[in-house]
Design goal:
The chain is of the alpha/beta class. Helices cover about 30% and strands about 20% of the residues. It contains eight helices and ten strands. It has helices at about 30-40, 100-115, 135-140, 160-170, 195-205, 225-240, 255-260, 265-275, and strands at about 5, 20, 45-50, 60, 75, 80, 90-95, 120-130, 145, 215-220. An eight-stranded mixed β-sheet has the order 1-3-6-7-2-8-10-9, with helices on both faces. Strands 4-5 form a two-stranded antiparallel sheet. A hairpin with a 5-residue loop joins β6 and β7 (about 90-95). α2 (about 100-115) packs across α5. The longest helix has 15 residues, at about 100-115. The termini are far apart.
Amino acid sequence: MDYFIPKQGATPAFGKSILVLPQPSLASLPQLAADLIIHTLKLELVGYLGLQDFVPAVSGLDSSDPAAPAPEGICFAVEVFQNKARTVTVVLPRSPVIRARKPHHAASIEAFATAAGFSEILIVASIDAATRGDDGLREPTPLRHYILSSTSSSSSPDSPLLKTLSTLAPPYVLPSTSTSSAPSTILPLFPHAGQTRNLFSAFLAATPAPAAPVAALLIYASEGDNEQSAEFLAEALVRVVGVQDERKGEGWTRPGSWEVGLMGMEMGRERQGEMFG
Protein backbone atom coordinates (compact mmCIF):
# COMPACT_ATOMS: atom_id res chain seq x y z
CA MET A 1 0.00 0.00 0.00
CA ASP A 2 3.01 2.28 -0.55
CA TYR A 3 1.03 4.02 -3.28
CA PHE A 4 -0.90 5.69 -0.46
CA ILE A 5 0.94 8.00 1.94
CA PRO A 6 -1.03 8.76 5.12
CA LYS A 7 -1.01 12.28 6.49
CA GLN A 8 0.86 12.57 9.76
CA GLY A 9 -1.58 12.18 12.63
CA ALA A 10 -4.48 10.98 10.44
CA THR A 11 -6.25 7.67 11.07
CA PRO A 12 -7.67 6.51 7.72
CA ALA A 13 -9.80 3.38 7.54
CA PHE A 14 -10.68 1.97 4.12
CA GLY A 15 -12.50 -1.27 4.89
CA LYS A 16 -16.27 -0.88 4.29
CA SER A 17 -15.63 2.51 2.63
CA ILE A 18 -16.74 3.55 -0.87
CA LEU A 19 -13.80 4.65 -3.03
CA VAL A 20 -14.68 7.68 -5.19
CA LEU A 21 -12.29 8.44 -8.06
CA PRO A 22 -13.05 11.80 -9.77
CA GLN A 23 -11.19 11.98 -13.07
CA PRO A 24 -9.59 15.10 -14.58
CA SER A 25 -11.84 15.22 -17.63
CA LEU A 26 -13.81 17.59 -19.83
CA ALA A 27 -14.66 20.88 -18.06
CA SER A 28 -13.18 19.48 -14.80
CA LEU A 29 -16.69 18.77 -13.50
CA PRO A 30 -15.77 15.74 -11.37
CA GLN A 31 -13.01 17.69 -9.61
CA LEU A 32 -15.27 20.69 -9.05
CA ALA A 33 -18.06 18.51 -7.65
CA ALA A 34 -15.60 16.75 -5.34
CA ASP A 35 -14.31 20.14 -4.17
CA LEU A 36 -17.85 21.19 -3.25
CA ILE A 37 -18.46 17.99 -1.29
CA ILE A 38 -15.13 18.23 0.54
CA HIS A 39 -15.65 21.84 1.63
CA THR A 40 -19.38 21.62 2.35
CA LEU A 41 -19.41 18.34 4.25
CA LYS A 42 -16.00 19.04 5.82
CA LEU A 43 -14.25 15.87 4.74
CA GLU A 44 -10.92 15.24 6.45
CA LEU A 45 -7.60 15.09 4.62
CA VAL A 46 -6.10 11.68 5.49
CA GLY A 47 -3.29 11.27 2.98
CA TYR A 48 -1.88 11.44 -0.54
CA LEU A 49 -2.02 8.96 -3.40
CA GLY A 50 0.28 8.19 -6.31
CA LEU A 51 2.07 11.53 -6.42
CA GLN A 52 4.79 10.02 -8.62
CA ASP A 53 2.27 9.42 -11.43
CA PHE A 54 0.83 12.93 -11.67
CA VAL A 55 2.12 16.21 -13.06
CA PRO A 56 3.73 17.84 -9.99
CA ALA A 57 1.54 20.52 -8.44
CA VAL A 58 1.81 22.40 -5.16
CA SER A 59 -0.28 25.29 -3.89
CA GLY A 60 -1.45 26.97 -0.73
CA LEU A 61 -4.34 25.46 1.20
CA ASP A 62 -7.84 26.40 0.11
CA SER A 63 -10.46 27.73 2.48
CA SER A 64 -14.24 28.11 2.51
CA ASP A 65 -14.01 31.86 3.15
CA PRO A 66 -12.06 33.94 0.60
CA ALA A 67 -12.10 36.92 2.98
CA ALA A 68 -10.44 34.98 5.80
CA PRO A 69 -6.66 34.60 6.11
CA ALA A 70 -5.34 31.65 4.16
CA PRO A 71 -4.67 28.61 6.36
CA GLU A 72 -1.06 27.58 6.80
CA GLY A 73 0.25 24.65 4.80
CA ILE A 74 0.35 23.35 1.24
CA CYS A 75 -1.69 20.95 -0.85
CA PHE A 76 -0.36 18.45 -3.35
CA ALA A 77 -1.41 17.05 -6.71
CA VAL A 78 -3.53 14.19 -5.32
CA GLU A 79 -5.16 14.24 -1.90
CA VAL A 80 -7.33 11.65 -0.15
CA PHE A 81 -10.29 12.72 1.98
CA GLN A 82 -12.73 10.81 4.19
CA ASN A 83 -15.89 11.64 6.08
CA LYS A 84 -15.95 11.23 9.86
CA ALA A 85 -17.68 7.86 9.66
CA ARG A 86 -15.02 6.61 7.20
CA THR A 87 -17.74 5.32 4.88
CA VAL A 88 -16.68 7.46 1.90
CA THR A 89 -13.16 8.03 0.56
CA VAL A 90 -12.61 10.69 -2.12
CA VAL A 91 -9.35 10.78 -4.08
CA LEU A 92 -9.10 14.30 -5.51
CA PRO A 93 -6.52 14.83 -8.29
CA ARG A 94 -5.60 18.43 -9.01
CA SER A 95 -3.42 17.67 -12.04
CA PRO A 96 -3.45 15.08 -14.86
CA VAL A 97 -1.58 11.79 -14.96
CA ILE A 98 1.80 11.94 -16.71
CA ARG A 99 1.37 10.23 -20.09
CA ALA A 100 4.23 7.76 -19.60
CA ARG A 101 2.88 6.83 -16.16
CA LYS A 102 -0.69 6.01 -17.21
CA PRO A 103 -0.28 2.19 -17.22
CA HIS A 104 1.44 2.27 -13.83
CA HIS A 105 -1.23 4.57 -12.40
CA ALA A 106 -4.14 2.39 -13.49
CA ALA A 107 -2.50 -0.82 -12.23
CA SER A 108 -1.56 0.84 -8.93
CA ILE A 109 -5.09 2.16 -8.33
CA GLU A 110 -6.46 -1.36 -8.85
CA ALA A 111 -3.87 -2.82 -6.48
CA PHE A 112 -4.52 -0.13 -3.87
CA ALA A 113 -8.29 -0.58 -4.04
CA THR A 114 -7.99 -4.36 -3.73
CA ALA A 115 -5.48 -4.31 -0.86
CA ALA A 116 -7.42 -1.65 1.06
CA GLY A 117 -10.67 -3.65 0.88
CA PHE A 118 -13.03 -0.94 -0.31
CA SER A 119 -16.66 -2.03 -0.34
CA GLU A 120 -17.52 -0.32 -3.65
CA ILE A 121 -15.59 1.64 -6.28
CA LEU A 122 -17.05 4.59 -8.18
CA ILE A 123 -15.28 6.42 -11.00
CA VAL A 124 -16.67 9.91 -11.72
CA ALA A 125 -16.01 11.50 -15.11
CA SER A 126 -17.39 13.96 -17.62
CA ILE A 127 -17.79 12.96 -21.26
CA ASP A 128 -18.15 15.00 -24.42
CA ALA A 129 -21.73 16.22 -24.84
CA ALA A 130 -21.19 16.29 -28.61
CA THR A 131 -21.17 12.48 -28.67
CA ARG A 132 -24.83 12.16 -27.65
CA GLY A 133 -27.12 10.74 -30.26
CA ASP A 134 -30.81 11.48 -30.68
CA ASP A 135 -31.77 9.01 -27.95
CA GLY A 136 -29.36 10.68 -25.55
CA LEU A 137 -30.74 14.12 -26.29
CA ARG A 138 -34.23 12.92 -25.44
CA GLU A 139 -33.20 11.87 -21.93
CA PRO A 140 -34.16 14.38 -19.21
CA THR A 141 -30.78 14.12 -17.47
CA PRO A 142 -27.16 14.51 -18.61
CA LEU A 143 -26.13 11.79 -16.15
CA ARG A 144 -25.24 8.25 -17.21
CA HIS A 145 -23.99 5.18 -15.40
CA TYR A 146 -21.71 2.33 -16.42
CA ILE A 147 -21.18 -0.89 -14.46
CA LEU A 148 -18.21 -3.14 -15.11
CA SER A 149 -20.05 -6.39 -15.75
CA SER A 150 -17.05 -8.73 -15.56
CA THR A 151 -16.34 -7.89 -11.92
CA SER A 152 -18.38 -9.14 -9.01
CA SER A 153 -20.61 -6.09 -9.51
CA SER A 154 -22.72 -8.26 -11.79
CA SER A 155 -23.33 -10.60 -8.87
CA SER A 156 -23.96 -7.86 -6.28
CA PRO A 157 -27.65 -7.05 -6.72
CA ASP A 158 -27.81 -5.83 -3.10
CA SER A 159 -25.16 -3.14 -3.60
CA PRO A 160 -26.75 0.17 -2.44
CA LEU A 161 -24.45 2.13 -4.74
CA LEU A 162 -25.39 0.14 -7.84
CA LYS A 163 -29.10 0.32 -7.00
CA THR A 164 -29.02 4.10 -6.57
CA LEU A 165 -26.82 4.59 -9.62
CA SER A 166 -29.17 2.56 -11.84
CA THR A 167 -32.17 4.51 -10.56
CA LEU A 168 -30.55 7.92 -10.89
CA ALA A 169 -29.23 7.71 -14.46
CA PRO A 170 -29.76 5.63 -17.60
CA PRO A 171 -26.95 3.33 -18.78
CA TYR A 172 -24.16 4.80 -20.85
CA VAL A 173 -24.25 3.66 -24.46
CA LEU A 174 -22.41 5.33 -27.32
CA PRO A 175 -24.68 5.99 -30.35
CA SER A 176 -22.48 3.75 -32.50
CA THR A 177 -22.67 0.79 -30.11
CA SER A 178 -25.32 -1.81 -29.51
CA THR A 179 -28.12 -0.95 -27.10
CA SER A 180 -28.28 -4.55 -25.90
CA SER A 181 -28.39 -4.87 -22.14
CA ALA A 182 -26.49 -8.18 -22.23
CA PRO A 183 -23.23 -8.09 -20.24
CA SER A 184 -20.14 -7.45 -22.32
CA THR A 185 -16.43 -7.51 -21.52
CA ILE A 186 -15.71 -5.04 -24.34
CA LEU A 187 -15.27 -1.58 -22.89
CA PRO A 188 -16.89 1.34 -24.73
CA LEU A 189 -15.05 4.54 -25.46
CA PHE A 190 -15.43 7.38 -22.96
CA PRO A 191 -14.63 10.55 -24.97
CA HIS A 192 -12.63 13.13 -22.99
CA ALA A 193 -13.17 11.20 -19.74
CA GLY A 194 -9.55 11.13 -18.61
CA GLN A 195 -8.31 7.81 -17.27
CA THR A 196 -11.78 6.23 -17.01
CA ARG A 197 -11.22 3.57 -19.64
CA ASN A 198 -7.69 2.77 -18.41
CA LEU A 199 -8.98 2.27 -14.88
CA PHE A 200 -11.79 0.01 -16.07
CA SER A 201 -9.25 -1.97 -18.12
CA ALA A 202 -7.07 -2.44 -15.05
CA PHE A 203 -9.98 -3.75 -12.98
CA LEU A 204 -11.08 -5.91 -15.92
CA ALA A 205 -7.63 -7.50 -16.21
CA ALA A 206 -7.20 -8.08 -12.47
CA THR A 207 -6.81 -11.67 -11.30
CA PRO A 208 -8.79 -12.51 -9.33
CA ALA A 209 -11.58 -10.13 -10.27
CA PRO A 210 -12.19 -7.31 -7.78
CA ALA A 211 -14.37 -8.31 -4.86
CA ALA A 212 -15.96 -4.85 -4.84
CA PRO A 213 -18.45 -3.65 -7.46
CA VAL A 214 -16.86 -1.21 -9.93
CA ALA A 215 -18.98 1.43 -11.67
CA ALA A 216 -18.93 4.95 -13.06
CA LEU A 217 -21.12 8.03 -12.70
CA LEU A 218 -20.79 10.00 -15.94
CA ILE A 219 -22.08 13.41 -16.98
CA TYR A 220 -22.25 14.92 -20.46
CA ALA A 221 -20.41 18.24 -20.45
CA SER A 222 -18.83 20.95 -22.57
CA GLU A 223 -16.28 23.63 -21.82
CA GLY A 224 -17.58 26.86 -20.31
CA ASP A 225 -18.95 28.23 -17.07
CA ASN A 226 -19.96 25.02 -15.29
CA GLU A 227 -20.63 26.12 -11.71
CA GLN A 228 -24.25 24.99 -11.79
CA SER A 229 -23.33 21.72 -13.49
CA ALA A 230 -20.75 21.06 -10.78
CA GLU A 231 -23.40 21.57 -8.10
CA PHE A 232 -25.78 19.29 -9.99
CA LEU A 233 -23.14 16.56 -10.17
CA ALA A 234 -22.29 17.04 -6.48
CA GLU A 235 -25.95 16.52 -5.56
CA ALA A 236 -26.03 13.31 -7.58
CA LEU A 237 -22.75 12.07 -6.12
CA VAL A 238 -23.90 12.63 -2.52
CA ARG A 239 -27.03 10.64 -3.28
CA VAL A 240 -25.16 7.78 -4.94
CA VAL A 241 -22.56 7.25 -2.21
CA GLY A 242 -25.05 7.84 0.60
CA VAL A 243 -22.87 10.23 2.58
CA GLN A 244 -24.69 12.11 5.33
CA ASP A 245 -25.69 15.54 4.04
CA GLU A 246 -25.65 18.04 6.92
CA ARG A 247 -26.44 21.17 4.91
CA LYS A 248 -29.95 21.47 6.42
CA GLY A 249 -31.36 23.15 3.35
CA GLU A 250 -28.37 25.44 2.78
CA GLY A 251 -26.47 25.61 -0.49
CA TRP A 252 -23.03 24.36 -1.35
CA THR A 253 -19.96 25.92 0.25
CA ARG A 254 -17.68 27.01 -2.55
CA PRO A 255 -13.91 26.91 -1.98
CA GLY A 256 -12.26 30.31 -1.63
CA SER A 257 -10.21 29.69 -4.77
CA TRP A 258 -13.42 29.69 -6.80
CA GLU A 259 -14.24 33.24 -5.79
CA VAL A 260 -10.72 34.67 -5.92
CA GLY A 261 -9.31 33.03 -9.01
CA LEU A 262 -10.94 30.02 -10.58
CA MET A 263 -14.46 31.38 -11.08
CA GLY A 264 -14.43 34.82 -9.43
CA MET A 265 -15.56 38.13 -10.88
CA GLU A 266 -12.20 38.93 -12.45
CA MET A 267 -11.97 35.58 -14.21
CA GLY A 268 -15.64 35.87 -15.13
CA ARG A 269 -14.99 39.13 -16.94
CA GLU A 270 -12.08 37.55 -18.77
CA ARG A 271 -14.21 34.59 -19.82
CA GLN A 272 -16.92 36.91 -21.13
CA GLY A 273 -14.32 38.93 -23.01
CA GLU A 274 -12.97 35.81 -24.66
CA MET A 275 -16.46 34.62 -25.49
CA PHE A 276 -18.04 37.83 -26.72
CA GLY A 277 -14.99 39.93 -27.71
